Amino acid sequence: MALQRAAGAGSSSAAAPVAPPPRRRLHHPPRRRGHRLPAVPGDATHLASTGSGLLIVHGDGMLSLTNPSSLAMTPLAALAAVLPKYIRYKYLAADRQRLVPLINKAVVSDNFTALLIGNRTWKVIVTIGFSPPLAHFPSSIVDIASFQGKLYYLTSDVRKRQEELYIFGVDNAKQIGIRCISSTLKDIGEESWFGPCSTERYATERYLVASNDRLLMVRRWINLPPIYPSDSGIVKRTRRFEVFEAADLSSGCGRWIKVDTLMGHALFVSKGCSKSLSAGAEEDCIYFMHEDIKNGKPEDPFLDSGVYNMRDGTVAPLLTETLVAEPLAVHGGPWCPTWLFPSET
């Protein structure tokens, strides 16, 4: 896998997609400089973006946090020690003899380190300071995020289209989830129904993003091709986004409030890492990538990528210029592309 950095003009924290080994050309936005990151360790079996850094799983099972610019590395021995007890592993499609852990997301703050892991069964592994790591098993979890020094997680009931927000807590050395928001109502006119020939079928993805002093839930609407006819020529594409703010969290009666502005920020969303930026990107826009997996391998991350404008509801191409990225096949694995925001050193 080649890690490429695209730094925005006048910004030291612009995002770069972190993709599995794409044997193709990678692209970067106009007027941005491309920077090659230093190579990751050769024994790495899994990479996860923490925003400004990388969480690396090494071949011997050790975990470390790495600054991709300086290569400064911090071992996570306590977390690595308990990981085999909870984590599921999956064979690499290209190498049936090598197992890689399914770490879906890594969140690192001054107070804790949290991993969202799993495939069909989800777990959140959290270590706080020097305390032993704890495991939590929420149902239907879709994302985790750090907000104001606390860990929040989002669950979703697809059938009822309800999103519930929880805050992580500890009671008698056990992890518990304290519900902050119970649900959100279905939008009028958005009732789901099955029509095999319909061109108005949608799938949704949800992301939890801390943006300045707001915690946001981003709902992504993806238009699906009809089942019949199979040769309709219609492709799977993201059509729009909705953004909700988690309000009244301290009152114990939180609620979702739909918003139509990002307050001058831009959001970068993905299953592995989401972030809000106040500079170096288009205001009130949402940057997104294609995150589907086919036959055990991630598809081209730019198939369904773009920049969604909250002000006029339009979607613009994410990339327009080309930059060659050399594939490092040894780091290929069953994880989706995500965002990385390395800092200047």
UniProtKB/TrEMBL annotation:
Compositionally biased spans, kind Basic residues: 22-36
Return the annotated region ranges for Disordered: 1-43
Q: Where is the KIB1-4 beta-propeller domain?
A: 36-309
| Top-level taxon in the UniProt lineage | Eukaryota
Checking InterPro entries in the record gives: KIB1-4_b-propeller (IPR005174)
Which stretches are tagged as biased composition: Low complexity? 1-17
- Annotated protein name in UniProt: KIB1-4 beta-propeller domain-containing protein
UniProt source species: Oryza nivara
